[in-house]
Specification:
This protein is an alpha/beta fold. It has six helices and nine strands, in the order E-H-H-E-H-H-E-E-E-H-E-E-H-E-E. The strands form two sheets. It has a five-stranded parallel beta sheet with strand order 2-1-3-6-9, sandwiched between helices.
Length: 158
Amino acid sequence: MGASVFTGASETLRLTGIDEDINTSGRYQAIKPRLLAMDRVAEADHFRRLLASPDVIIGSVAALTETGSLVIASGSGSQLPGYAGGAARAIWIVGAQKVVPDLSTALRRVEEHALPLESARTQEVYGWPSAINRLLILNREFQPGRGTVLLLREAIGY
């Protein structure tokens, strides 16, 4: 079996089919299905460790600045340890509409565009709105080759 892979919650990953492929193909040690089967109270430490240090984390961002900063907003923060450096490799799939000129525009995009869409989704799925409880801004990768951004030529995700 391949590398341990965690897919962050992402409409982009869902729409591209990446989330389903990683989590159901059997080619990877998919972390998300394991987490969903765990008792979050009784296995809290193991749960936290699985999230924090997968071999690979795959997700998306709320915005990508023209200077290369990645802006990730999160309600739970589950994907942030892996993105910030806990995962050996990080891959972000980014729709073309998420590219913005600068950080202030990126933060405005999070608040005015991504949050309302994600909030509508979580309201429908879970019965409560989303929130920007945690915000991660990555300006540069410390370890060369650790992070990869795949910029799609189409608008996909929020």
